[in-house]
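Final report, Chapter 2: Outcomes

The project's central promise was a pipeline that accepts a single protein chain and returns its three-dimensional structure in a standardized token representation, suitable for archiving and comparison. That pipeline is now operational. To close this chapter, we reproduce one record exactly as it appears in the project archive, with the input sequence first and the structure output second.
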Amino acid sequence: MAGFVERNARKEIFSLKPYVPGKPIEEVERELGLKDIVKMASNENPLGPSPRAQEAVVNAAKDLNLYPDGNCFYLKEKLAEKFDRSQDCFMIGNGSDELLRLITETFVQPSDEVIYGDPSFSEYEFMTCVMGGKVKPVRLANFTYDLQAMKAAVTENTKIIYVCNPNNPTGTVVTREQLEKFMESLDEDILVVFDEAYYEYVDDPEFQSGLEYLDRGYNVIVLRTFSKIYGLAGLRIGYGISTPEIVAAVNRVREPFNVNLVAQKAAVAALEDEEHLTRSREINRQGKEYLYRELQAMGLRYVPTQANFIFLDTGQDCRQVFQQLLRQGVIVRTGDIFGYPTYIRVTVGTDEQNLRFISSLKRVLEG
């Protein structure tokens, strides 16, 4: 029996780098015996989900014996109304992660190349490697996607280019002017996937959504999620917007009931709650301003963000900073996994959470 996996498993899996999630609150409580934990590592909405979404979850409980709507009809109907597009322009997934997998399964073959910024969302590399494609990460310039360098990396084998905008983990955006030059230079057989998971937080007037290029006839998919500002990360639901032809192709590899019933109901309700969306944006704006002031007063460098997190340089070994913050009950994300060994990424929280993070960080760095 020895060596069965080595002999029979697909060779691609041995090059995969499994996604390492942030530490859950329960694990920290078990490890350190702490109870008052503040999780600021995974860019979740600190306000939680919309009250309407919570009510929808409770009401959906009576129907858990039923299979979900495999076509997500009511959610697509709500999205079609929101974006003024036909329902066949939308693909719904078990989080944006599943949509990335479906897109890769649909379009990437072993000879194909996939380009993305580095560092960025690790699933671009992971999904490409699963399908045996070739990854071509392009280093960021000033913490931002270097579209000029990405264009230079294009070859006749390039199949997909990912543009994470705003980018995770840096929170930066590429501008309208930069995108115009980039998109105009690409061959029409290249699929550009705009990952806009943090779109709702953006306030930079120079930002341009990928929807603009979809409307102008480019081969584009725009990904959005309910995990961030809508506060539904625990239900795993996201969506993509593209041409009916591209959506139909991706749906060919989609499992019949890929999005659960509760997630669909909650997502519809969340889209109807504009008040919660507005409040979430405002909490994030105020939190950023407070954290900027405090980090400047501490003499720490940070990357101005268009998302709900801040990438900052502690000037010390980020693993040690992480562990010391953990002992104080504050969970953040280390930057070494992104190639920045002195940086951490912290989610913008509520006033109380932000205050606790800053006071804890001061104790760590001064101690």
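Archive annotation: The chain has 14 helices and 13 strands.
This record, like all others produced under the grant, will remain available to the consortium after the project formally closes.
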